[in-house]
Amino acid sequence: MPKKNLTCSDCGTLNCYRREKQFPPFCQTLTAPPQLLKKTVARYRGRGLDARMARAAAEVEGTYYGKLTRVEEIIAFANRLGAKKIGIATCIGLSAETKVFVKILETHGLQAHTVLCKVGSVDKTEIGIPENLKVKPGCQESACNPILQAELLNAQKTDLNVVVGLCVGHDSLFIKHSNAPVTTLITKDRVLGHNPAAALYTSNFYYTRLFDGSKKL
Asked: Which CATH number belongs to the domain containing residue 79 in this structure?
């Protein structure tokens, strides 16, 4: 059946980038309320945080396109924002990677404050998770505590927070409760070595199961 509401993933021209083709009739550039577009553009101007972040991000992209790693881009972005204290909300399973990242930040004159996901050490059963849904039932298994991670970094008055491998959903909670702007260094994917895009690249061969809608996840 044809889709009723076509969106950007249905577009074949991507004219919004270079304007070398034609906008399809359903293009949200055309259908977005003009006042909304005007309002968003206004937020990218001036001296507000949104404006400074937008310009810093565009400057890093334009200056270093294809030249810097994600680690270096975060440092360049922080420098352009004037961010000195960097909060790191990290998965305990990526604590080794976080230690290296902290050393790199400090090498570049930035201060890092790290909070592990298991901070508070609250057993999963205390928040309503059945024992049988633990990774290893029958023992202490602390729940991830992204809200406490955010609150502790808020108390430190960090200028920029970085997510390092928080679980799906836990990252959402952290971002929701963080006072400082948030960017991501590592997106967790335990199966694919923290490279979730690999599932998309191999969906026509190794991961054809992704298109099996009969299997409830």
From this structure: 3.40.50.11840
Separation of alpha carbons 150 and 88, rounded Å? 9
Question: What's the pTM value of the predicted model, to 2 decimals?
Answer: 0.94
Give the structural domain span for 83. 35-186
Task: Please answer whether residues 146 and 174 qualify as being in contact, where contact means their C-beta atoms are separated by less than 8 angstroms.
Answer: yes
Six-digit token string for 72: 């270096």
123-177 confidence digits (pLDDT tens)? 999 999 999 999 999 999 999 999 999 999 999 999 999 999 999 999 999 999 9
* Number of domains the chain contains: 1
User: Does residue 133 form part of some domain?
Assistant: yes
Question: 143 in a domain, yes or no?
Answer: yes
- 164, part of any domain: yes
